[in-house]
Each structure stands twice: as structure tokens, then as C-alpha cells.
Amino acid sequence: VQLQASGGGLVQAGGSLRLSCAASGLTFITYTMGWFRQAPGKEREFVAGVRWSDDGTYYADFVEGRFIISRDNAKNTVYLQMNSLKPEDTAVYYCAASRSYVVASQRTYDYWGQGTQVTVSS
After folding, report:
1. Contact criterion met (CB below 8 Å) for 36 and 106
2. For labeling, which of 63, 72, 98, 122 is most exposed (least CB within 10 Å)?
């Protein structure tokens, strides 16, 4: 199984980025997909997830309507559209895949991508 995250970069506060995560080696449609992030000196935290069974989407409170997670099952890809970015969004963003119905818990995820750096300047 491989999860290849891309789309990170440097952006000014208020800007937007779209992260992509291409999955291979698994039956994508049967996996819950999540985005997590880890800032320097902090623990990794849940950002957003989309459940495989009903395409239900879930977000961390800090997202505050700024991010949208979506999936394209035909392309085996999950996206994270991030708008109105803030300097505190600076982190390495990871995508992950889970067979669980539970979306926000890291412990339920089986596979992790390598991460993509997002840096938001003030």
C-alpha cells in the first residue's frame, strides 16, 4: 500500500492550497481516508476525514469551515482544499487510510503517507 501526498508549499496568510493523496495497493472505496497534521514541537492531530461507508465528512474544530475534504474513488485520490490559511496551519500534513468507521482517531488508521509540508507566512 502506498499513499502519496502532494500539494504542499509556501503560501501567505489568507491564501489557499489543495492537497492531494493518491492511494495504490488497496481497495480505495472501502477505506476511510483522513488528513492529519503535525506542527514542530506538537503532537500529530486530526484535521479532516471522509468515511468509506457513507462519504460522511468530519473536521477538527479548528478548521472552522475553512477546509473541505473530498474523495474521487475513480482516481483513488483524496483531497483537502484549504482556504483562509493561517500561520498556525503551518505543519506537515499526512494522509492516512483506515478500514474503520471511526474517522478522527489516529489509532484506527492502518496506512500513512509520507507527509507534505504546508507553510503559511504572516
Report:
1. yes
2. 122
